[in-house]
Amino acid sequence: MKVQFKKGLSGYSGTSDGAVYYYHPRLKKCLVREYVIPQNKANTDRTRSIMANLKLLEPSEAYKADFRNYLLAYNADRVLGEKPLLAWTNAFMRMMHALQKAMSGQVDLKTITRQQIFDQNLPCKTLKDAIEYGLLPALKGYGQWDNEI
């Protein structure tokens, strides 16, 4: 949710009154969300281990740049009412979860490695391959996004 401050506090970030305030540089707006303490549940632990493992993949800067360009095109092209993607990691996570769903027997996000991606020639190796495989919506000019993870 977009925030408006009184008395010129436009750069404020932090927590207050059960909410988290932060500045989003691409949107050039201050946003607010509810402060939620994650509960220790099986699903939380699973998500935590998936996030930790995907961070270990360490995508290349060119791969990240492809996702940033995809993000700009996606947000410009999206259907009215569809939520925008705010960071390249949102599109990356969407792609990885779609990969796990499509290849449920072969891919587990808790254990996937760079070596596995290249050995099995998985479609998440490049953004172009992911779009052609149907993991992400196709956008005009997607053929240029062929940098490897």
Features:
10% strand, 3-stranded antiparallel β-sheet, globular, alpha+beta, 40% helix, 2 domains, 149 residues, 3 strands
**Within the largest sheet, what's the order of strands?**
1-2-3
Structural class: alpha+beta
The best one-word shape is globular
Oligomer kind: single chain
Radius of gyration of CA atoms, rounded to a whole number: 18 Å
The number of distinct β-strands equals: 3
DSSP summary: helix tally? 5
Number of domains: 2
Mean pLDDT across the residues is: 81
Q: Give, in order, the helices and strands.
A: EEEHHHHH
Beta-strand percentage range:
5-15%
Low-confidence spans: none
What is the CA-CA span between the terminal residues? 33 Å
Helical content, roughly?
Answer: 40-55%
Largest sheet: 3 strands, antiparallel
Short description, anyone?
This protein is α+β, with helices and mostly antiparallel strands and about 150 residues long.
Describe the fold and architecture.
- This protein is of the alpha+beta class and 149 residues long.
- It has 2 domains: 1-37, no CATH class; 42-144, no CATH class.
- Helix content is 40%, strand content 10%.
- The protein has a 3-stranded antiparallel beta sheet, with no helix packed on it.
- The model has no long low-confidence stretch (mean pLDDT 81).
What topology does this entry show?
Elements: E1 14-16, E2 19-24, E3 29-34, H1 42-56, H2 61-77, H3 88-102, H4 114-119, H5 127-133
Antiparallel strand pairs: 1-2, 2-3
